[in-house]
Amino acid sequence: MDEPMVDAPGQQVKVTFTTTETDLQLPETKRQLLVPADIRRYGLSRILNSESMLDTGSIPFDFLINGSFLRTSLQDYLVANGLSLETNLTLQYVRSLIPPVYEASFEHDDWVSAVDVLSAASPAGRWSGDSFQHGHDRILSASYDGLLRIWNASGQVITTSPSGSHGGHTASVKAAKFLTSSQLASAGMDRTVRVWKYTEADAFSGELKPTLELYGHAGSVDSLEVDGASRRLLTASADGAIGFWSAAKASAPEADASLLPNAHTSKRRRLATSVTVAQRGPLFLMPVHTAPATAAVFDPRDRTVAYSASQDHTVRTLDLTTGAVVSTLATSHPLLSLCAVPRAGGGSPLLAAGTSARHITMLDPRASTAATSVMTLRGHANKVVSIAASPDNDYSLVSASHDGTCRIWDLRSVRPAAKDEGGMGSVSEPVYVIERESLKTDKGAKKRPAGGEGCKVFSVVWDRLGIFSGGEDKKVQVNSGRNVVAD
Amino acid sequence: MGSKLTDKKRKQVESDSESDNELANGLFDGVLSQSESDDDDYIASGDEDEDVDDSGSEDSEGTDDDEDENDDGFSSDEIPSDVEHEDEMDKLAKKQEELEITEPGVDPKPRKKAEEEEEGRNYRIEKDANGGERYVYDEIDPVYDSDDTDFNEPANTIGNIPLSFYDSYPHIGYDINGKKIMRPATGDALQSLLDSIEVPEGWTGLTDINTGNPLNLTKEELELVRRVQMGLLPEDVEDPYPDTVEWFTSVEEKMPLSAAPEPKRRFVPSKNEAKQIMKLVRAIREGRILPYKPPEEREKELEEQEEQYFDLWQNEEPRAPNPMHIPAPKLPPPGYDLSYNPPEEYLPTKEEREAWEKEDPEDREKDYLPTKYDALRKVPAWGSFVKERFERCMDLYLAPRVRKNRLNIDPNSLLPKLPSPSELKPFPTVVQTIFRGHDGRVRSVAIDPTGVALATGGDDGTVRVWELLTGRQVWSVKLSSDEPVNTVRWRPTKDAFILAAAAGEDIFLMVPTHASVTPALDQASRDILSAGFGYATNGQQQQLAPGKEPPGKWSRPGTKLEDEGVLIKITVRSAVKVINWHRRGDHFCTVSPRGQRSSVAIHTLSKHLTQIPFRKLAGLAQTAAFHPLRPLFFVATQRTIRCYDLQKLELVKIVQPGAKWISSFDIHPGGDNLIVGSYDKRLLWHDLDLSNRPYKTMRFHGEAIRQVRYHKGGLPLFADASDDGTLQIFHGKVPNDQLENPTIVPVKMLKGHKVVSKLGVLDIDWHPREPWCVSAGADGTARLWM
């Protein structure tokens, strides 16, 4: 392996290999190496894989220099950064990424507003514990036609929720989540949160049965977060309130009668359901926001803490035991989505908030309100309406936007913000861009339409099964999600 | 003799002609004597020709007789006579006879007398062809020295043609009688030999062109020739150059012959001459006569005349030194680098030299390169001396000699200091959602007070409600099948969810189905809408005179629409174009520009009451609005906006934007400022406290402005929508301090709407909180910009 290096004419660069991966540490003596200046990622990766080094065979590696990935030869990098060839370069090697290739699309009748996955590694799979049968991966999609659909991994509909007149949602569903493998929750524009019992007769048929109707919000419920372990639901509504609900009939309080659909209008009477479902109210309804609340998430460590984002530019930390606002993080843009990224060291998570100003703001809820924005992820061309963290690590995200793309971000790859980006904080750019497959025609990728017309992505979820995104093109698109971001 | 010789020569060739002659004459005797000279013969027969030689040939007559006879003999022998010959002769004889008959000018009587006299007669009597008598006269033989001109010449009447034409004939022409003139005989070799031996005097050897006879010179002529050859005077004169006899001498005699005094004219200058001279002098002075000059000199003068030089400072007067006077600039004194032997550091390096040479002459800092010479005597002449002087003159000529009092102000500094748009964020920049669904134009857009729903009304007669962020249509109702929905406006309070829309002459009030309409809110809205029906039935509206139609008829629109949520229909007298709510939501005003007297109406929701506030309006009402804070009511006609106090019921103010046709206006939420859009492409900002005239006029659109709108949620933004398909976003900050002027900065032009049949963007509305705006386009879309 050393011969090509010796034979190679031209200059050599002294490099030092480092890594954060515990299983891929090099012995102390081998960390420093002279490599040809024109070597690229592939060559470096082969050197690392060689017998004299790691002896790992063929793990593709990527190399980070000062926080950015090496995409050129070492020489070009040095020239571009104005460094001399004698510089000792520190190369941090990480497992290489595989592009999130398109796998499948699940066709719907109407816009897909929300997607969730039930798999062994998904939160719902973990919450269901032993009751989850391995291999029975399920995909839940909520649509603007007011129906929930459950698909198996190969794209067949297993069951569809009943319509509005049979105990289902009477308007579009905006959010849906698996609680466990047999229970799921959904919320929508009919201001209700519904809890469903899901039973499967066999692998190809099942039944969704409404078990609970939760009333309390005065506006469209746009976001739903569940905690399967405690069977608690967290919702954010356009009326600016954050709802905290129990999915158990017994522990849920009575609903406010004024919010129940009563029979004094002809229209309501017409829509009255034939199925009677228990109607309950919220544990807490926290009208904490002055503008529509757009997302609420549990703290991944501490399920008594929640974070909510709203169009009033704030992220609020809520104490779910008392229903009080703990702290408020103000940003400069309306926030449309929120995702809590757990931190490796434990403690409070990092919050990724998608804004209507086409970027994602990373917030640290611990920090003072003065300097909350840790990082800005720039690249989207339209509102960022859904963010999901990687199931495998704590530094990668996928975000869905109305511009018709999902973008994958690596929080480790940062650069200082340029002047026109505000000049403050650090900025990251997407690692991958997942286009909508429906936009691609025989002639290749089309230019994305203005305003994301016809291709808006409303929801994205990242599981080991893949990256599932649903949007205006009436499809759930599946892209592979393994090793997309370097470990 | 010369003539004779030619005669003989000719005879040899053309003997027949001679015999012809003989026959023709019919006079055999005397023929010879006459034919001594053929010329004579011809003269006798011809009347016209004059021959110069006549006299000479006559002179030699006597001497040549014998030879002539011989000649004849010879000639007759030589000619081989034949039959043709005689035939010809016969013919010719006949002709001759005929000709002689017609001879004119003969009187027969004297002829008879002559017969009698026989000898004295000068004619013969002959028989003519008819046997008649005819008189043939003899040739008149003029005496020697006769003056008869007729006789002079043997006339050959061939005209003025060369004789060579007759070379192939025996004759050389015809005489006056038409007889052939035979070619004179030419001598043979022997004869010519003889002739050569005895050259007659006066022989020249030349032939007369006209006659073909030898050209002989007379004695006198020969003498003349001789004299000329000798260089003597041709005439024999005694003394060609006699001495002058000075009859009048210039010498003044001491004793003059005459004692007469000299005449006065001798010493008095001639007046006539003086006159003539003065004439010339005058002409010269006036330039009519130019003194002669050689042409090349004249040309040079002309050239010189064209080039005229003026001394620019010829008439310059010395001026008193004052600060405004600038003397001509002086050349800078020479520096080291101008020295012939400059110090080393002044010498250019090779690179500098190359750079200097590479530069354009105009760009060079100095137009020379310092050069080193050992001694001054080695310095060459300054090559560009003339050029340099010329440039110096040019500099002096072109340099302004008077200091101009120019204001040294950077024009940019005069512009008011406007912040750059990037500092004025946030404002909408790109289209983020497109609301597509209307069939035909979207005429009106409105965002509800909570900022989650968007209502649109369009040409298809429908009112649609959309989810603002996603662009999802959530509700739709068709109000009219033929009338477009001209305007939709939300009731501005949050205690109810009521939308007002106008289609044609009908105004509809509705409660759309929407996620944010909870049963309680729905009930509250319905209560607000239906509260007035009690009023109507209670007979509270009886102020109207019976029989007079109320200005607005409030009714229920029918079950079909009521099921959709449309609860009230108000029918007014003409098509409503504008609806504007009062901030409390109990009143709204409508404007129907074609409505004449009832164009502006104020509707009270709680009483289901429609009132016409103006019995008479100066101009066509365009739009109307309530003041956001005070009880004021603004009505815009085509040219002016009038402000009325609703409590005192009086006209407060007339705002005159100066636009030709106002399309829309909006009142700043602070209440003191007003923006006006006009169909003549102008956007006008009025400060109501300041003046009735616009504070600022902006004309940035290429087409009419349809709608103007302030941001009502606390952001210093306003926007206008134009038929050119664009929206323009302005930053318009109204300061709290009354003394400061509003800051107006155009920040963004939003393009995206297509222009369809010359209509672009028809309406705009701002989000109640965020810097987002929605536009309604004639292309059938509404767009959310953020």
Automatic annotation (TrEMBL), chain A:
<keyword id="KW-0677">Repeat</keyword>
<comment type="similarity">
    <text>Belongs to the WD repeat WDR12/YTM1 family.</text>
</comment>
<feature type="repeat" description="WD">
    <location>
        <begin position="214"/>
        <end position="255"/>
    </location>
</feature>
<dbReference type="InterPro" id="IPR015943">
    <property type="entry name" value="WD40/YVTN_repeat-like_dom_sf"/>
</dbReference>
<keyword id="KW-0690">Ribosome biogenesis</keyword>
<feature type="repeat" description="WD">
    <location>
        <begin position="166"/>
        <end position="206"/>
    </location>
</feature>
<dbReference type="InterPro" id="IPR019775">
    <property type="entry name" value="WD40_repeat_CS"/>
</dbReference>
<dbReference type="InterPro" id="IPR028599">
    <property type="entry name" value="WDR12/Ytm1"/>
</dbReference>
<keyword id="KW-0853">WD repeat</keyword>
<dbReference type="InterPro" id="IPR036322">
    <property type="entry name" value="WD40_repeat_dom_sf"/>
</dbReference>
<dbReference type="Pfam" id="PF08154">
    <property type="entry name" value="NLE"/>
</dbReference>
<feature type="repeat" description="WD">
    <location>
        <begin position="377"/>
        <end position="419"/>
    </location>
</feature>
<comment type="subunit">
    <text>Component of the NOP7 complex, composed of ERB1, NOP7 and YTM1. Within the NOP7 complex ERB1 appears to interact directly with NOP7 and YTM1. The NOP7 complex also associates with the 66S pre-ribosome.</text>
</comment>
<dbReference type="InterPro" id="IPR020472">
    <property type="entry name" value="WD40_PAC1"/>
</dbReference>
<comment type="function">
    <text>Component of the NOP7 complex, which is required for maturation of the 25S and 5.8S ribosomal RNAs and formation of the 60S ribosome.</text>
</comment>
<dbReference type="Pfam" id="PF00400">
    <property type="entry name" value="WD40"/>
</dbReference>
<dbReference type="InterPro" id="IPR001680">
    <property type="entry name" value="WD40_rpt"/>
</dbReference>
<protein>
    <recommendedName>
        <fullName>Ribosome biogenesis protein YTM1</fullName>
    </recommendedName>
</protein>
<keyword id="KW-0698">rRNA processing</keyword>
<feature type="domain" description="NLE">
    <location>
        <begin position="13"/>
        <end position="78"/>
    </location>
</feature>
<dbReference type="InterPro" id="IPR012972">
    <property type="entry name" value="NLE"/>
</dbReference>
<keyword id="KW-0539">Nucleus</keyword>
UniProtKB/TrEMBL annotation, chain B:
<feature type="compositionally biased region" description="Basic and acidic residues">
    <location>
        <begin position="88"/>
        <end position="98"/>
    </location>
</feature>
<feature type="compositionally biased region" description="Basic and acidic residues">
    <location>
        <begin position="106"/>
        <end position="127"/>
    </location>
</feature>
<dbReference type="Pfam" id="PF00400">
    <property type="entry name" value="WD40"/>
</dbReference>
<dbReference type="InterPro" id="IPR001680">
    <property type="entry name" value="WD40_rpt"/>
</dbReference>
<protein>
    <recommendedName>
        <fullName>Ribosome biogenesis protein ERB1</fullName>
    </recommendedName>
</protein>
<feature type="region of interest" description="Disordered">
    <location>
        <begin position="1"/>
        <end position="127"/>
    </location>
</feature>
<comment type="similarity">
    <text>Belongs to the WD repeat BOP1/ERB1 family.</text>
</comment>
<keyword id="KW-0853">WD repeat</keyword>
<feature type="region of interest" description="Disordered">
    <location>
        <begin position="539"/>
        <end position="558"/>
    </location>
</feature>
<feature type="repeat" description="WD">
    <location>
        <begin position="761"/>
        <end position="786"/>
    </location>
</feature>
<comment type="function">
    <text>Component of the NOP7 complex, which is required for maturation of the 25S and 5.8S ribosomal RNAs and formation of the 60S ribosome.</text>
</comment>
<comment type="subunit">
    <text>Component of the NOP7 complex, composed of ERB1, NOP7 and YTM1. Within the NOP7 complex ERB1 appears to interact directly with NOP7 and YTM1. The NOP7 complex also associates with the 66S pre-ribosome.</text>
</comment>
<dbReference type="InterPro" id="IPR015943">
    <property type="entry name" value="WD40/YVTN_repeat-like_dom_sf"/>
</dbReference>
<dbReference type="InterPro" id="IPR012953">
    <property type="entry name" value="BOP1_N_dom"/>
</dbReference>
<feature type="region of interest" description="Disordered">
    <location>
        <begin position="342"/>
        <end position="364"/>
    </location>
</feature>
<keyword id="KW-0539">Nucleus</keyword>
<dbReference type="InterPro" id="IPR036322">
    <property type="entry name" value="WD40_repeat_dom_sf"/>
</dbReference>
<dbReference type="InterPro" id="IPR019775">
    <property type="entry name" value="WD40_repeat_CS"/>
</dbReference>
<feature type="domain" description="BOP1 N-terminal">
    <location>
        <begin position="166"/>
        <end position="428"/>
    </location>
</feature>
<keyword id="KW-0690">Ribosome biogenesis</keyword>
<keyword id="KW-0698">rRNA processing</keyword>
<dbReference type="Pfam" id="PF08145">
    <property type="entry name" value="BOP1NT"/>
</dbReference>
